[in-house]
Amino acid sequence: MLTVTGLTAVATALAEPVLEIAYDQQVRRLTRAQLLAYSSLDTIDIPADVAYGRAMRYQAIPITALLPRLSQAGTMQFTASDGFVANIPAALLAGGKGNAQAWLAIESSDGVWPPLKVGGASAGPFYLVWLTPGKSGISTEQWPYKIARIADAPPLEIRHPQLIPKAPLPIDSAERRGLQVYMTNCAVCHQINGGGDAQIGPDLNKPFNPTEYFQESFLRRFIREPASVRTWPQRTMPGFSPSIISDDSLNDLLRYLRQMAKERTH
User: Fold this and answer.
1) Can you tell me the distance from the alpha carbon of 85 to that of 107, in angstroms, rounded to the nearest whole number?
2) Rounded Cα distance, 105 and 182, in Å
3) Which range of residues forms the domain containing residue 244?
C-alpha cells in the first residue's frame, strides 16, 4: 500500500516534464531535473524573445552540449506538444564563431515563465532560443517552444517529395526559392498535398490553394498581418514582417504556391 509520501512522490514523478531526444542512433528521455543538472547550464539573456516579444532571462543549455557532432547531421526536427514541428538545418544549430548560438531554455518548477497569453500556458517546459539570431538569419519559426521531442531526420522535402514542384524548373527559379521559404516559415504548421509533419493549420493545396481563393493583395496582407484580414479566438498564425520574409521572398513564396496549385494531388 502506498503511503501519502509515496503517493506524493509518484505524483511528482508523473508531473516532471520529460524531453525525448532521438539522435545519433539512440533515444534518451531526460527529465527537467536531469537537464537542470547539466554542467553546461547557464543563465542567458535574450534581448528580443520571439515567444514573449520582450527581453527574457533563461536557464539554458547550449544545444551543442545536448547534440554533439551536429556538423555531421542533416536536419533536426523539433516537435512541440501542440503539434508545431520545426525542421531546422543542423548547420544552423551547430553555430560556430560569428554565427547565431542555439540554446535549450528550461523552465524550472520554482521559476515558472509567464503565460503566452492571459489564462494560457507558458512557452515551457523546453524552448529553443537564440543568441544573436540575426547573424544567421534565424526565422521566428525557428524558435519552437513547448518542445516535447528532438530528433534527427532526413530533410523535409526528402521525406515528403510531394512538396517539390514536379515541373522542370531551373534550380534557381522563384518557385524553388519559394519552396525554401515555405519550409522554413509555413511547414511548421501546414502541409501541402498531404505532405509535411505538422497539422496545426490547414493543408495549403487541398482542397484549394490560398492563391485560388484570396485576391493577391489580400493574400499578401494576410501573410503580413493575419488579423487585419480575418481573425478568430483560436487563431495562432503570426504575421511575417519584411524583416522575417522579405518582399522578394514573399514573391517567391507566392510563385511556389501558384505552381503547387497546378500540381494538386487527389
Assistant:
1) 20
2) 26
3) 157-261
Render pLDDT for 200-224 as a digit per residue (tens, 0 to 9).
Answer: 899 999 999 999 999 999 999 999 9
Residues 139 and 167 in one domain: no
- Read off the CATH number of the domain in which 182 is found: 2.60.40.420
Of 211, 194, 203, the C-alpha closest to 262 is 211
pTM of the model: 0.86
Residues in the chain: 266
**Cβ neighbours of residue 171 under 8 Å, at least 6 residues apart?**
none
Are β-strands 26-31 and 126-131 bridged in parallel, bridged antiparallel, or unpaired?
unpaired
HSE-up (13 A, CA, CB side) for residue 245: 25
DSSP 132-148: SGGGGT--GGG---SEE
Confidence of residue 187 (pLDDT cuts 50, 70, 90): very high
